[in-house]
């Protein structure tokens, strides 16, 4: 029975029953973590052969570049080729970096502030106001980068096809709007894949700011856990064809392929952007860790090697997502007090509880020993206008713990809804 | 016979003989590189056991931190302990970073521009002028960082005890002077170890700028190639005792211990600075590569393990430095047309040819197939006021190539001097 069709007495009964369940949950003294998109232990174990790979002294030089010594600003050529193949871009467009794409994104924005980007009239630090488009729900660490530089964050609602493009097209008429955060495939947290039409409209934007920049975080480009690899649009190509060759920087990493925070990352951009960035990067770095580049290249060999490896992750991830959905479908759907996405890749299930209840559900979970990503974290300024969205990250806990955590979460969703309807 | 005691005829004879020697050098068609402080092949081979170390799945967690997963902003605790022991500082003062201390230095300066440092009144990007003290000859990449941010670089002459402190004490009275680059042990390129008195005066500076910052690049802290490890002053402690606890950031890395550009790096600073930096770094990085931290910790175990390893580098480096000095002492000293330092550690021999001759010597070497660091590179703006200093980097070429390169260099020094005295 739907909660909003219940009588007050029925609601009161439900509340009392759920409260008793909740007290039982608390009594278990759980310590469960569904807060971050961290791969679980089993996933880490998939790459032990990478950790312990044997490299011959005569294998350390590839394309004439000695991986063990200084040099080659753009990274080991073979690592750049691997990323180029994965992203479908040209070798010349790829810069192989350190272990974190987040850092490469931060550094891009930092350079926009200190030096300006290729088409900037002046460094952003010299501007009175910088505004940035933030499709939301979105990735909290993107918004944190914008916030740390003092940008004004503009919330763009997500639709099932990606960011609301009517709004985006309107906002980019403002020259203070300097860019947009995008997770185009299995968006964080909704798991939405931007539609071809959305991507075409993004690539064809006519921003007033000459240095408007898409931060295209392709974090989950090969991260299907359900079904085969889904090809994606080459955004560099799309922007170039739409007359915006320098409007996008694409990012990817192996953090959720091999080792989180210890994989290899890259950015890809137009050759003109690359020439500009190389001059600036030359002051910051001699070259990133080419030995880690080498390990990854020897381990995967090519893009197919990566896709094969992702199947192993999928086999671990799918049962976890199935568990999340089984609980939500079984416990919550009949009550009609929440809705959620059903992603086929990525790391999250995006859950929308009743308006005004997300913080309460989060607090109830926490009290019962289940840590979730903070309510509101998926919105700019950590401010969810509806106080509704919660991000479920099922990858880290083992399956048996995940079951327990979902039990608790469902009880908390029910309890918060009953509280709300009863004005408790 | 000294060149300045020769008659014009004697000089002319020397010139003709040297020119003939130079033509013979050119005819060899050499391709030799003495330009960068890159370890040589033999040195890279010293760390193959690190490259190929076996790590058990149950070894990947240390101090409760899983090296293979996200987390722990400050890096693997065991890596921080290792650096703390090496630098003689407290564990809490150490942040273990990625593979490059240069990047950590750049990022410090970048954050001073975008956010300001702990005691900044405003971000440096909001200031009309930022001036930075550059002891010279010095490290070109330090000066490049200052230049890329548009600082005014102030040359501070190096003495045999470190930077000319009378000048430094004078300059820091200017509130626009925001810091100083320092390589306190085996300075690049002179190989000078700052004296205790110099360090005491540095630690006791009373700069007008509240956010004046020493960038203390302890790049060669354990890099003796001649004799035993020489202990060094704990600059964090010295600054604290002098009432300047937050005035210094110290940097170090294993780039010239294990693998250049693929080792591990750190910075160390006061706890107050660390609290401030952690907040800013939290937007840039989840954590640097903790697997590489782990490898280094398992490989070295402790500071003594590092010192033992450095003895192996020394056995390779000493004959190279001996070769450089043997040529200079034998070929150049009797003519009194140059002087040079005799370092016991570090990576360079700093050579001062006759005023006005460094660029000429560099060009002559280049024409004969011997690449040296650009003349002037060791000065701010690449401008050596005397056009005299050349940096010899003997580590990269094998010994037999180094011999040939030094033969060529000596011929070029003589030729340039004779040209100058004969006004050719």
Would you mind describing this structure in some detail?
The structure is a homodimer of 424-residue chains. Chain A contains 14 helices and 15 strands. Chain A has helices at 8-27, 41-45, 48-51, 77-87, 101-114, 140-148, 165-171, 196-203, 235-241, 271-281, 290-300, 303-332, 358-367, 399-421; strands spanning 32-34, 61-62, 65-66, 94-96, 131-136, 152-159, 162-163, 177-182, 213-217, 248-253, 265-268, 338-340, 349-353, 370-372, 389-392. Chain A has 2 domains: 3-44 and 316-421, Aspartate Aminotransferase, domain 1, CATH 3.90.1150.10; 62-306, Type I PLP-dependent aspartate aminotransferase-like (Major domain) (Aspartate Aminotransferase, domain 2), CATH 3.40.640.10. In chain A, the strands form 4 sheets. The first copy, chain A, has an 8-stranded mixed beta sheet with strand order 4-11-10-9-8-5-6-7, with helices on both faces. Chain A is an alpha/beta fold and 424 residues long. Chains A and B meet through helix 5, helix 6 and helix 11 of A and helix 5, helix 6 and helix 11 of B.
Short note summarizing the structure:
2 copies of one chain form a homodimer. With 424 residues, chain A is an alpha/beta fold.
Q: Give the CATH superfamily of the largest domain in chain A.
A: Type I PLP-dependent aspartate aminotransferase-like (Major domain)
Outline the biggest β-sheet of chain A.
8 strands, mixed
Structural class of chain A: alpha/beta
How many domain modules of chain A? 2
Helicity of chain A, as a percent range: 40-55%
Beta fraction of the residues of chain A? Answer: 5-15%
Order of helices and strands of chain A: HEHHEEHEHEHEEHEHEHEEHHHEEHEEH
Mean pLDDT of chain A: 97
Query: Within the largest sheet of chain A, what's the order of strands?
Result: 4-11-10-9-8-5-6-7
What is the multimeric organization of the chains shown?
Answer: homodimer
In CATH's first tier, which class of the largest domain in chain A applies? Alpha Beta
Please mark out the parts of chain A with pLDDT under 50 across 5 or more consecutive residues, or reply none: none
How many individual β-strands of chain A?
Answer: 15
What is the CATH third-level topology name of the largest domain in chain A?
Aspartate Aminotransferase, domain 2
